[in-house]
Amino acid sequence: MTGPIIAAFLTYLLMLAAFKWRHFRRFHMSVMVFIICFDVAMPFYLVATRDWKTRLIDNGDILSFGVWMHFGLIITLYVLYVIQVQTVLKMLRASKQAVDPEELAAARRDHRSQGIGILLARGLVIVTGAILADPNVSAE
Does 1 have pLDDT greater than 60? Predict the structure, then answer.
């Protein structure tokens, strides 16, 4: 198993802990912001440390279903992150203003549902990334 896969798996465990202990808002929000930043930075790290031209173009992996499925899952994850942040901002604004309690409750339900979707999508991204990982690259 390579270093990025181990790091992604460990951050996934941290994400599960943040989901379980969501009532500790400072911990939950700190972990989730870190995870989002980690997930945005990971492609830059991988591009900087791997030979993608050889792997994708010369070896023809660009045409494989697994690569495109992994890419689609990453895009799905990023879209869910954007929607999740929008919902969080809506909840924070609602908690500072006198807003209908039903509207805040609906935003919390949406936030939880999106969180479950993020957990599923991120888990699939990690699994497909592990499947596609080049076994010839040594751990960093």
Answer: no
Query: pLDDT tens-digit profile of 51-106?
Result: 888 878 888 788 888 899 999 999 999 999 999 999 999 888 877 776 778 888 88
User: pLDDT above 90 covers what percent of the chain?
Assistant: 59
As a whole number of angstroms, the distance between CA 15 and CA 28 comes to 8
Pairwise CA distance, residues 34 & 30, whole Å: 6
CB 128 within 8 A of CB 73: yes
Phi and psi for 130 in degrees, rounded to 5? -65, -40
Going from N- to C-terminal start, the domains of the chain cover 3-132
State pLDDT tens for residues 31-45.
999 999 999 999 999
